[in-house]
């Protein structure tokens, strides 16, 4: 009997990863379900136009103006972010100074005040140093 007591069991130094895999799968499912529900854009009702679309190699800088006159900025295909007029000028000026040929567009809601859209265009040219800025529209059906 004394020989049994003196036998030492070797300890296992392994990590049981099964619970971690379960947690990761649950998180994956949660993110897959919630990702399509995130609102990454601003609903803007663009005016209709018969103009042909412009093809560009670079992602454009888009300044969106909603019905209430709030400004949203999209840089390099990033999600729309609400910005103040001063933030818009600073970010667009820095971006355009690095890439002078990047297209800059203003997407004004069809129901936004014309003066607000005009002020944004004027601010882009005078304060942000944008040589040419265009207006966005949706094609007529």
TrEMBL record:
Biological function: Part of the Tol-Pal system, which plays a role in outer membrane invagination during cell division and is important for maintaining outer membrane integrity.
Alphabetical list of Gene3D superfamilies matching this protein: 3.30.420.270
Pfam families attached to this UniProt entry: ExbD (PF02472)
GO molecular function: transmembrane transporter activity
Record note on quaternary structure: The Tol-Pal system is composed of five core proteins: the inner membrane proteins TolA, TolQ and TolR, the periplasmic protein TolB and the outer membrane protein Pal. They form a network linking the inner and outer membranes and the peptidoglycan layer.
Protein name: Tol-Pal system protein TolR
GO cellular component, one term: plasma membrane
Any single GO BP term: cell division
Lineage: Bacteria, Pseudomonadati, Pseudomonadota, Gammaproteobacteria, Lysobacterales
Similarity annotation: Belongs to the ExbD/TolR family.
Membrane topology: Single-pass membrane protein
InterPro entries with a match to the protein in the record: ExbD, Tol-Pal_TolR
Membrane spanning stretches: 20-42
Cellular compartments annotated: Cell inner membrane; Cell membrane
Keyword Cell inner membrane: yes
Keywords (A to Z) from UniProt: Cell cycle, Cell division, Cell inner membrane, Cell membrane, Membrane, Transmembrane, Transmembrane helix
Keyword Cell cycle: yes
């Amino acid at each position: 009997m004394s020989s049994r007591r003196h036998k030492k069991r070797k300890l296992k130094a392994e990590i049981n990863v099964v619970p971690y895999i379960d947690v990761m799968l649950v998180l994956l499912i949660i993110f897959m379900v919630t990702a399509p529900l995130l609102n990454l854009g601003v609903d803007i009702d663009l005016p209709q136009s018969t103009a042909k679309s412009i093809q560009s190699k670079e992602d454009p800088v888009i300044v969106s103006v909603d019905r209430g006159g709030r400004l949203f900025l999209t840089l390099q295909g990033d999600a729309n972010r609400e910005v103040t007029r001063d933030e818009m000028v600073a970010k667009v000026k820095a971006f355009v100074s690095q890439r002078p040929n990047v297209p800059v567009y203003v997407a004004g809601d069809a129901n936004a005040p014309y003066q607000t859209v005009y002020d944004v265009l004027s601010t882009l040219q005078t304060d942000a140093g944008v040589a040419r800025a265009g207006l966005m529209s949706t094609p007529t059906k």
